[in-house]
């Protein structure tokens, strides 16, 4: 039931003309190589087409520690919003008392638990609470790899330089240094736990190029890198017997009368009951905000990526940074409609596939930093009018995936990109034979809660790790540094929280004092009363149903 | 496979065995035989397989492991009213069929018994076969006709003991060997490879290898099988009887054809404390509450002794995994 | 101009980000969600259809991209006796589909200390003795939405072949459909996880990784970092551009010529 459209090899017949041009030009393009990388001046010019730089998407914050700083409208709406629970109605008697409460069940949260335990905090004094299932996260979707400068031709210093330049020299240098210096240890530790990174015939790690890297240092596990890393450390987590609450998002943090973070209010999404958890330290590892669909972009992110942690931390007084930039991944799926926005890993370009317009012309060097690459694709589609229009009105350009097998031999795609091959096959497209249509997609929250090299924030008792943090990537993250970020700073936050807990005799009384102050600030700034956050989940229900919905029970 | 390769692995015409001519008309084009290892030979008993490969190579054969084989099915005893239990063996027969082959060789008595019985079960009733095929709708239908062989049958009936004798490099002169069959090779009678009461397949084989076969009254009795898990005393009692009888008759070695028998014989004979020459048997048993003597004899798999006699080097014999090292007695009798 | 382009992009994506509007739909099918009939747009995923019908997921949706296994779904299509299994986020609706999601697979995972367990196949049966109950019925394989040869890896586990289990189970997303359907009540995906970890830990950490870890621990890069951080923005930009240009002499600007192990040919 594909409608009136006749599909040929999974594509509408009208797209075939353009696909033929891609086939026809392939040999010549391979011979010539891709266009040269842009100069700094050319990069600046094309970035005008990036959603971050196009006017209209951002505004200054009216309240809170970052008052006056610029943030995307969608994020500002949530930061300038009233709590979803009424502070006056909550009974704050404590249900669960622990040493460390970890919020978030991706790579960062799981690492924090394991490493707090390694530092001597017993598993029954550590509670991990997560909104969906343990593992439902952006981490598990990471395909491309994890960067670690462990080859003789490479060094942590060069890794630093690549990430620093990629981040437009806005990264916090001490935090970035921790990221790159810990990376080889993380690879060693994961391998000893039984994590399987791709290896060659000699048992050596296969290490690939990534956009913006000057050395190949990407460690992948087929194109299931994040999944492999996560399922291994989750298994380890389960073996150690930590406390776990699933479908229990935090809806507010709790603070002591002195202003230390000392717990959270968790909410059972299925029964509606809340639990008051008191903890000596809280590790916030709640991930990013892709499901806010900044500027109307589709997203690669998981269902729960709704900026909850950002909102909670901000109300507790945490300083945020670099929220003015958002990472759009250059290559999200643009066709078929069922998978619009899903990630087409950078590894596809790393393996040699070129980005090609409707006429079969390669128009951009395939491994520019992500913002530059994305902007070039938007310009090609909307200014130069050389994109392919899909049946639902989207535009995209081709990613010439058949080149991969021309370069690396038959079977490479199934072996090294099995997840993607499988996904396209499910929708009738053979990416070995035909190119795939792509367009930038909302991918990553570059900024977040400002952290030091040990996951500490400006608020005592509050530690952070992973995508919710700001500083390590500056204003643009490189491929392969997000899983690494979660692994490095999840570990560091776990260690730092354990150290903090050992020195703190008592968590103190739990209050929502910070919330009262924040609400007063909202009122003073004239924020409309009806606006609430965190939102916990996006809403994709059909418009017709929503228009006729009544709540009777 | 190239013709050259075929020529290489096919035995030369002069080596046609005494029983084989009528049974195997395709001898000249014979090639690698589909081989079913079973789980024991892939895990605990790897040495038995290594020895078999070494021996067969010396006899001009290749045991080619069946692709995508699954469990023979013995984890559940086969029953005639539950077709589900024949799915595993039949799936293996489909793999043989996919190779364009008709025969499947195995070294393990348990696998042999299960596979052979299942092959019989489905081929004697087309309706059963049809229902199993209908259940496995993701596989091509099994047409029937795969013949399951134990390696001993292949040695005896196709290659022939005279041919084997001609290839012996280390004759086992002076060695006293007690064959032990257990149950699975001989019972039920329809699938047995020899007379269930008076088998002589292994006796003859070892005599052709130069050894003296020691007959023992318990050679076709049960070793205790899986009782070794839940009621180890039962297995222990059986084993002490079996080993004791062979030892009293002067055997240097006991040779088996089943990995589970091997395990039981090896381990239970060692359960008698070494310092006690007279240990009372299990009082809870109604039978044979007699004093037992500690006898410790090496237990070998038939493939190991065969490979040894055919001159296979030490690393291919798997002796190192034996609980009782056979090398001293072999060195003493045969000269290693 | 940029702002106008952004508005056009927002418009093109509306159905994906705010829910489907009937006015845009030309073709429809009928599906049955837990027995109730719903008319939904043709050509959307099961997940999109369930949402279109008015359900808001709490369970049953995770990554929405085929990696997490949260949206395991079983269904039959009118006229076909087969019970099929799929991921709701990766499967197109078909007319006459009867479906239900399996939001949770009850499955106990034994706990073990991976450090002390030897990398041997027999460890699998120690923790998962029920593996021996496999009758090779292949129902698990038929239920796998990743199209893995699940029964084959259980058979490999049974004979202790860790490498084969690893290879065959690697793309497992642990959705639990195999275990829900298994007549022998095996928990396939947990057994496979243990097998992969045992196999993984048997592979040595490459020497250059060990070496680099030692170098960092010994503070080998401290001085270089300090020098780097003392540079002016212009100096550090210059250094960055140089590295990007030269790519350490390993590769060229030609990404298409980069070989598998990253050694440039150009």
Structure write-up:
The complex is a heterotrimer of chains A (553), B (336) and C (266). Chain A has 16 helices and 25 strands. Chain A is α/β, with parallel strands linked by helices. In chain A, the strands form 7 sheets. In chain A, strands 6, 7, 11, 12, 13, 14 and 23 form a 7-stranded mixed β-sheet that branches. In chain A, strands 16, 17, 18, 19, 20 and 21 form a 6-stranded antiparallel β-sheet that branches. Chain A has a 3-stranded antiparallel β-sheet with strand order 8-10-9. In chain A, strand 17 (355-356) and strand 18 (362-364) form a beta hairpin. In chain A, helix 4 runs parallel beside helix 14 (482-503) and helix 6 packs across helix 14. Chain A is globular, with a radius of gyration of 23 Å. The two termini of chain A are 38 Å apart. With 336 residues, chain B is an alpha/beta fold. In chain B, helix 3 (46-58) runs parallel beside helix 13 (302-309), helix 7 crosses helix 8 (161-167) and helix 11 (232-248) packs across helix 12. The model of chain B is unreliable at 1-30 and 275-289 (pLDDT under 50). Chain C has helices spanning 2-12, 14-18, 46-52, 122-127, 139-143, 150-158, 162-169, 177-181, 188-202, 207-217, 222-230, 233-246; strands spanning 28-33, 36-41, 72-77, 84-87, 97-101. In chain C, helix 6 (150-158) packs across helix 9 (188-202) and helix 7 packs across helix 9. Residues 252-266 of chain C have low confidence and may be disordered. Chains A and C meet through helix 5, helix 6, strand 9, helix 7 and helix 11 of A and helix 1, helix 2, helix 3, helix 9 and helix 10 of C.
